[in-house]
Amino acid sequence: MTAKTSVVKLEGVWVTYHETLALRDVDMEIEDGEFLGLIGPNGSGKTTLIRVILGLVKPDRGRVEVFGVPPDRLGARHHLIGYVPQRSQGDWSFPVSVMDVVLMGRYGRLGLFRRPGKADREAAMRALEDVQMQDFARRQLAELSGGQQQRVLIARALATEPKLLLLDEPAAGVDAYGEEKFYELLQGLKEQQGLTIVVVTHDIAVVSAYVENLACLNQTLYTHAPPSEVITAGTLEKVYGCEVELLAHGRIPHRVVEEHDGHGGHNVPGGHG
Ligand code: ADP
Ligand code: MG
Asked: If 0-12 CB within 10 Å is exposed, 13-18 middle and 19+ buried, where does residue 57 land?
């Protein structure tokens, strides 16, 4: 095998909710084995794009293929997509054990009336081991820290035995150190399990050390390239205004600063981090 195959392919995708335009003419290809960071301001369509890939949102126009077929035609192969939703979408204060949460990831593979069996429990346990949470299987989810809960949600996504893992702002609320550990974990999973990973994030500086490509979205896709190219292209400032965040982490390439000076008079706040 020489040529890389696409796991996700979007062509001319438009999405509107009632009157609100969410995605405009998005073309995008995600290659098998790619680790992609998806960035963009609030309301730029990141979650919508993830939901389009999942088949939960139908485009008004355009074509979507996941593993070579429209996502709503994946049928039994839908388990090939693992999904970690944005945390604000879930209420995790109700009493439920870690194992039960991870087993939820198996329901897509179970028939409607089948109860989880030995194979499901084993897959759930393997997924917990993948995120080093196996010792917490019997604990209540609500008792865990934010970072531990996040790992459990990843285990739930891994329990489906996916090939494509979509994570929507998984590191939100995790401190910078925890975030680095978190991306290391994802990188390890990608390598061990041959996953393709798309992670929605705001923290470009941290994610750039781990991902192969950054996709910059603001209704339409502005760029999809290695972080070094995206960061120096000036695209981020136009689309995202993220230069402050980059500086705060002290990892900013000099060229960005120089380019920034070129815009004249735009002060960069110091004293962060
Ligand atoms: P992001 O994840 O980048 O913050 P979203 O995809 O959630 O962006 O939202 C893109 C745009 O679509 C925003 O303007 C948002 O208000 C709107 N939107 C998202 N979901 C809905 C919905 N279910 N109904 C109406 N508008 C929505
Ligand atoms: Mg979102």
From this structure: buried
From atom 27 of ligand 1, which residue's Cα is the shortest distance away?
17
* Residue 9, both tokens: 């392919």
Report how far residue 227's alpha carbon sits from residue 15's, in angstroms, rounded to the nearest whole number. Answer: 27
- Is the Cβ atom of 20 under 6 angstroms away from ligand 1? yes
Residue 2 scores a pLDDT above 60: no
The whole-model pTM stands at 0.85
Task: Tell me the pLDDT tens digit for each residue of 98-113.
Answer: 999 999 888 766 555 5
| 47 C-beta closer than 6 A to ligand 1 | yes
Q: Which tokens hold the place of 183?
A: 């991306």
Q: Which two tokens stand for residue 91?
A: 């209420």
Nearest ligand 1 atom to alpha carbon 18: 25
Residues 6+ apart with CB under 8 A from 221: 26, 27, 28, 215
HSE-CB of 223 using CA atoms within 13 angstroms: 18
What is the tens place of the pLDDT at every residue in 53-81? 999 999 999 999 999 999 999 998 999 99
Tell me the average pLDDT across 129-136. Answer: 95
Q: E strands, the chain, where?
A: 6-17, 20-31, 35-39, 61-66, 81-84, 164-168, 196-200, 213-218, 220-225
Q: Is the CB of 44 inside a 6 Å radius of any atom of ligand 1?
A: yes
CA angle 148/157/69 to nearest 5° reads 155
